[in-house]
Here is the input.
Amino acid sequence: MTIIEVAERAGSFAENKDVARSLRMDAIEPALEGGDDITVDFGGVELATQSFVHALISSVIRRHGSQVLDRISFANCTEAVRGVVEIVVEYSQDDVAST
Here is the structure.
């Protein structure tokens, strides 16, 4: 199990797409390719922008298919962060289904 602590890199307001991209490329993708399950821990993050979450997970879902969500969990999300994650997951799955 790989735990990715978003607040360590993004702070309490996760908005920087470059940070999200780095987390995806340096932590999420290698963990998935290594066979690990992942917990994306949003503890300490009060709010995340849709563009941050998109840069963090959208291409992962498109690349690996929606079944990758069986290997990724999201922890310690505020209601606002949870809502953004759900929106991004939903439209990313729609992108996979339409291809």
Observations:
- The first helix runs from residue 6 to 10.
- The chain has one domain: 2-97.
- The mean pLDDT is 94.
